[in-house]
Automatic annotation (TrEMBL):
<dbReference type="Pfam" id="PF14129">
    <property type="entry name" value="DUF4296"/>
</dbReference>
<protein>
    <submittedName>
        <fullName>DUF4296 domain-containing protein</fullName>
    </submittedName>
</protein>
<feature type="domain" description="DUF4296">
    <location>
        <begin position="33"/>
        <end position="117"/>
    </location>
</feature>
<dbReference type="InterPro" id="IPR025381">
    <property type="entry name" value="DUF4296"/>
</dbReference>
């Protein structure tokens, strides 16, 4: 379990580091790659991926099984949203290279997750 948490934290750290490195090398005239996921779609996918990560972390599976489960469920999320891994990575890298954009996106992701939590916790 500690190994899975370490991997999750190292994944988050590497995303943060990648965003920082891309932000340092940003050129203002770089056109967005085509196709590019719209911000709202990226927010929704990121929220789903973070929920998936939380479910996998609490599943008490071995690290290998947890990783396999995460990757399979990630593919399912991409399939349901009609996107592929390369489109997600390309879009994430583009928004990460524009630091303020990624900050705004993650602010919206946090709001989305809080709204989902409030909806689940609301009395029926």
């Amino acid at each position: 379990m500690k190994n899975l948490l370490f991997r999750a934290y190292s994944f988050r750290f590497s995303l943060l580091l990648a965003g920082t490195l891309f932000g340092c090398q940003r050129q203002d005239d770089v056109p967005p790659p085509q196709p590019l996921m719209p911000r709202q779609q990226l927010v929704s996918v990121l929220a789903d991926l973070h929920l998936l990560e939380a479910r996998v972390e609490t599943s008490r599976l071995s690290p290998d099984s947890a990783r396999a489960l995460y990757l399979q469920q990630q593919k399912d999320i991409f399939w349901r949203r009609d996107i592929n891994d390369s489109l997600f990575q390309r879009s994430f890298r583009y928004y990460a290279s524009h630091g303020k954009d990624l900050d705004d996106i993650y602010g919206t992701v946090l709001d989305t997750l809080a709204a989902r939590q409030a909806k689940l916790g609301a009395p029926k």
